[in-house]
């Protein structure tokens, strides 16, 4: 299996190389050269299997000879062993033919744990045998950072720096990043929004002297391994509702487009998915674009679903790459235009996108109302991101086709928004009960590439 860049001019890499490289050297994102498919029988055989067995079947064709089967099974087992639910990704029913896929039973209570726990294991194995050390820099609107710090804290071969927007993540998210005591992990509070953090991260990857000097690696969904691990729960949930003999649809609360893109990959692999619905908050650039209004940046507005406060949606580049017939030069041109403020999508590419993705948005009021309604009608306490999914799914779903809405975080990560909507303050699980008593360690830093590079180099040399 070989990996190519969405901008067409970076070296073609193996899975291991793509995983450890992060952003392609031409500024693009790595994608598999071809998408392997699973037969109907292979998908049907997943019924009744453990999450770990499904994970092995789904991911194995993508990893080439990076790990032996035995090694890969062991890494998967270690990754999901710490999850708080035996099913790993259980489902509950909200209404006839509407299901909620709970992706928040991992160690940091968000869907990011599914990929990050595995990436942590894969990095450790791959770097350990090469005898190499890398510097991971990540950008977060709250959940990627906490999941990455949890997955990599204390590991031998990595130093981790997480850039988060100062004052724009929930207190639980911030404390998950700032309270671990292991000295190889660092939380950096940037004076800016998430788009600024992600832009500075990509600047670092595009600064080859810095990149090569610190051996930069990435664990955002820039990294193909992140997307790959998220493909698995599309299979496990669809099969439990009757796939491959029955079609299902998915609604996905969306920001950086990694999670919904994983759904698209599942569909390309042969999973019968009728609709893939993108659900955004008031930062609705993706909804507007998919409705034919072009991709034009506005400001990022802080919301009660802070993890989705994103305008420059990194993985949309992967979706555009396929919609433009895998024309790397066309994608480079669009991304250059995005740097100047935005671009219009060609008619053919828009049609290709609309054949795959539907979309909707939820305002702040609609998000709160959905949290309250869902508690009343289904006794389910939603986080604001999941509520956006449920609101959009309710509007768009075909009652004849099972709809699976992804619940991307535990409500206790966003207690203020949930309490304001319902009067109920969700509590953290007992293992995190002392989160608010722990000391915090963070560094404030300007939204400035040189300041960040100096800070990171200084900490590495300390
Ligand atoms: C809780 C939560 N929901 C949804 C999203 C959106 O996921 P994606 O960025 O993969 O679109 C994120 C962050 O990315 C998140 O943290
Ligand atoms: N919502 C994310 C934003 C980063 O997304 P990623 O999937 O590219 O890591 C977060 O919580 O940080």
TrEMBL record:
Domain Tryptophan synthase beta chain-like PALP: residue ranges: 99-331
GO molecular function: pyridoxal phosphate binding; threonine synthase activity
Sequence positions bearing N6-(pyridoxal phosphate)lysine: 112
Keywords recorded for this protein, A-Z: Amino-acid biosynthesis, Lyase, Pyridoxal phosphate, Threonine biosynthesis
Catalysis: reaction(s): O-phospho-L-homoserine + H2O = L-threonine + phosphate
Amino-acid biosynthesis as UniProt keyword: yes
Transmembrane segments: none
Pathway membership: Amino-acid biosynthesis; L-threonine biosynthesis; L-threonine from L-aspartate: step 5/5
The EC number(s) this enzyme carries: 4.2.3.1
Family label: Belongs to the threonine synthase family.
UniProt-recorded name of the protein: Threonine synthase
């Amino acid at each position: 299996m070989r990996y190519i860049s969405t901008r067409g001019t970076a070296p073609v890499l193996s899975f291991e190389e793509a995983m450890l490289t992060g952003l392609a050297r031409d500024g693009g994102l790595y994608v598999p050269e071809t998408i392997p498919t699973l037969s109907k029988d292979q998908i049907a055989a997943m019924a009744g299997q453990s999450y770990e067995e499904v994970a092995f079947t789904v991911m194995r064709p993508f990893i080439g000879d990076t790990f032996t089967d035995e090694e890969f099974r062991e890494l998967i087992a270690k990754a999901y062993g710490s999850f708080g639910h035996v099913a790993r990704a259980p489902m509950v029913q909200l209404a006839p033919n509407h299901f909620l896929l709970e992706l928040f039973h991992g160690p940091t209570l968000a869907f990011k744990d599914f990929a990050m726990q595995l990436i942590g294991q894969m990095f450790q194995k791959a770097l350990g045998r090469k005898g190499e050390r890398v510097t991971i820099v990540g950008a977060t609107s709250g959940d990627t950072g906490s999941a990455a710090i949890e997955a990599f804290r204390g590991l031998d071969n990595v130093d981790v720096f997480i850039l988060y927007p100062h004052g724009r993540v929930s207190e639980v998210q911030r404390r998950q990043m700032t309270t671990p005591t292991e000295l190889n992990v660092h939380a950096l509070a940037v004076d800016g929004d998430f788009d600024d953090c992600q832009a500075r991260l990509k600047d670092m990857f595009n600064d080859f002297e810095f990149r090569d000097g610190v051996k930069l690696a990435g664990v955002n969904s820039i990294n193909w391994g992140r997307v790959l691990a998220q493909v698995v729960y599309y299979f496990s949930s669809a099969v439990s509702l009757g796939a491959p003999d029955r079609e299902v649809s998915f609604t996905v609360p969306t920001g950086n487009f990694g999670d919904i893109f994983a759904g698209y990959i599942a569909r390309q692999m042969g999973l019968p998915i009728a609709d893939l619905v993108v659900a955004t908050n008031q930062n609705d650039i993706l909804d507007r674009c998919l409705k034919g209004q072009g991709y034009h940046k506005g400001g990022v507005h802080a919301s009660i679903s802070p993890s989705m406060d994103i305008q420059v949606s990194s993985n949309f580049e992967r979706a555009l790459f396929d919609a433009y017939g895998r024309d790397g030069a066309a994608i480079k041109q669009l991304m250059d235009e995005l740097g100047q403020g935005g671009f219009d999508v060609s008619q053919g590419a828009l049609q290709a996108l609309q054949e795959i993705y539907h979309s909707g948005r939820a305002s702040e009021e609609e998000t709160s109302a959905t949290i309250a309604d869902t508690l009343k009608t289904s006794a389910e306490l939603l986080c604001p991101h999941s509520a956006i999914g449920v609101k959009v799914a309710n509007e768009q779903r075909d009652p004849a086709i099972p709809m699976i809405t992804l619940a991307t975080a535990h409500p206790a990560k966003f207690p203020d928004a949930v309490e304001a909507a319902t009067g109920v303050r969700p509590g953290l699980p007992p293992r995190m009960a002392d989160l608010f008593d722990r000391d915090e360690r963070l560094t404030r830093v300007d939204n400035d590439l040189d300041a960040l590079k100096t800070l990171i180099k200084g900490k590495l040399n300390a």
